[in-house]
Amino acid sequence: MIDVLLGLQWGDEGKGKIVDYLAASYNIIARFQGGPNAGHTLYVDGKKVVLRTIPSGVFHSHCLNLIGNGVVIDPVSLQQEIEQLLPLRPDVLQRLFIAHRAHLILPTHRALDAASEASKGEDKIGSTLKGIGPCYMDKTGRNGLRIGDILSKDFRKKYDKLTQKHLQMLRQYDAVPDWEQWEQPFFDACEYLRSLQIINSEYWLDKLLKQGKKVLAEGAQGSMLDIDYGTYPFVTSSNTIAAGVCNGLGVAPSRIGEVYGITKAYCTRVGSGPFPTELDDATGEELRKVGNEFGAVTGRSRRCGWIDLVALKYTVMLSGVTKLIITKADVLDNFNPIKAAVAYIADGTETNELPYDLCDVSITPVYKNFPGWDKPISTCSTFDETPQVFRDYCSFVEQYLETKIAFISNGTGRDQLLTIF
Ligand code: GDP
Ligand code: IMO
Ligand code: MG
Known about the structure:
421 residues; alpha/beta; Adenylosuccinate Synthetase, Chain A, domain 1; Adenylosuccinate Synthetase, subunit A, domain 2; Adenylosuccinate Synthetase, Chain A, domain 3; 11 helices; globular; binds guanosine-5'-diphosphate; binds 6-O-phosphoryl inosine monophosphate; binds magnesium ion
């Protein structure tokens, strides 16, 4: 079976930390979508590492790591990431596999991302500018280059053709950059990637699954950034929900087992777009400070607010979450009261359903208040040690979402995790 772990909010829920913990019980960790827009933070032997394209199982020497076909890969960024890991895990290359069918991010994809964002002015998405949107556009537009193309003798020709197309588009934006300076590093990195284990990953996974190996699919971004079901157009360009695992790894739905859904005990968003429970006040500022809410990739400050159970119920439904994980519970240690949105007033009408377009309606969340905990969660080493008010809060969340909580994370370290079941 293949289990799935994904974010239920707008990303940065702590996926990296939890995958790194769970990886002890899996043989293979596989990324199925997204690319270097992701920033998954792990603390290994007290050292902070941010992973962007490489799966978060890389620190376990028994784990194989697959970058699946649904991922978009920037060769320069991937090479840098590998080189950063080599001193820490010299065997990383033996355990890293890349799908032939994964698409390549070209330097001009990044330029197009920047030009598109600049042209949008105030309506910009707030993209990480890693070339994700333009790369997926070329994939669905049937123009893209894939990792497998690096191995082809026509690679340069294919690259030139696509780059010329991009330059035409960039001329229309009146934003042609000094792109030639990026070519040598790009081709050097492609040459480096040629030496890695590039495989037909759908057959590879099938074989391992038939041998009874355990696979964990690691999501990037979050469900509210899903291209179909997120807060469109303020989303990323891939399917971040559980359905994306089947496309992104070439596995059948019948093979999906547990679906771990992660949410922070509050909520954050980086970039533009609707965020009904956002706190534009001192409490929001305090959440940012205590939660250290600054982007792992871009360093941008994250917008902060209360947990949104209406949105969570929607994303739990979309992915069929079987096990909930709540992270950063310790961040709320000194907040009183603690709030959770349980309904929306959308254009004057109360609802428990997420409106089709959050940009177009005026939304006021209806909150349920919980008393602050009378003892810090950060110091607890079992769930039973946590204060009763916290356990009441957890029961409410479970009932509202009709899903059981499996773990509570109460710190950045791998083992700062309270197991419930
Ligand atoms: P990801 O993209 O979902 O992997 O999450 P990020 O790494 O972008 O952001 C999560 C941040 O929260 C990282 O800095 C983690 O080290 C940190 N973190 C994860 N879990 C906890 C937790 O339970 N408590 C605290 N205080 N920090 C956490
Ligand atoms: P992880 O995996 C948080 C956001 C960007 C922007 C929108 C589109 O670390 O949770 P893109 O670069 O995809 O064109 O950006 O999506 N975004 C993320 N926000 N965490 C992420 O990844 C994100 N990846 C993209 O801020 O609003
Ligand atoms: Mg992140």
